[in-house]
Write a sequence for this structure.
């Protein structure tokens, strides 16, 4: 399996037509760099689609997920931070559309 040491969520939406090169450019713009073994999450404006750019140390993976109903619970209302770090449990909750913000409050760090 692919090792993931860090999971980062961007609070600003991204165009879901973006391919791997555009997503990588956005990661560099928002996070400063694409670190090996880190995952970077972006949502669209409507909040029903997510793209994840994953750097596995050798190359890039671009994953997409769409909810047929509802929206992903993205960030806390009034969050002024550009990025948020998530735990694996929070990521799992987010990807199925559950409110991840209240899971393991200590695991959330802001840049």
């Amino acid at each position: 399996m692919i090792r993931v040491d860090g999971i980062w969520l961007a609070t600003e939406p991204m165009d879901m037509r973006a391919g791997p090169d555009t997503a990588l450019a956005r990661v560099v713009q928002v996070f400063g760099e694409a670190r090996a073994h880190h995952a970077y999450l972006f949502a669209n404006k409507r909040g029903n689609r997510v793209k994840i750019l994953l750097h596995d140390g050798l190359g890039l993976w671009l994953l997409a997920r769409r909810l047929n109903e509802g929206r992903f619970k993205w960030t806390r209302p009034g969050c002024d931070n550009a990025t948020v770090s998530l735990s694996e449990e929070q990521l799992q909750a987010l990807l199925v559309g559950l409110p991840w913000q209240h899971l393991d409050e200590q695991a959330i760090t802001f840049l």
Notes: Helices lie at 20-31, 88-95. The two ends are 28 Å apart (CA to CA). The longest helix spans residues 20-31.
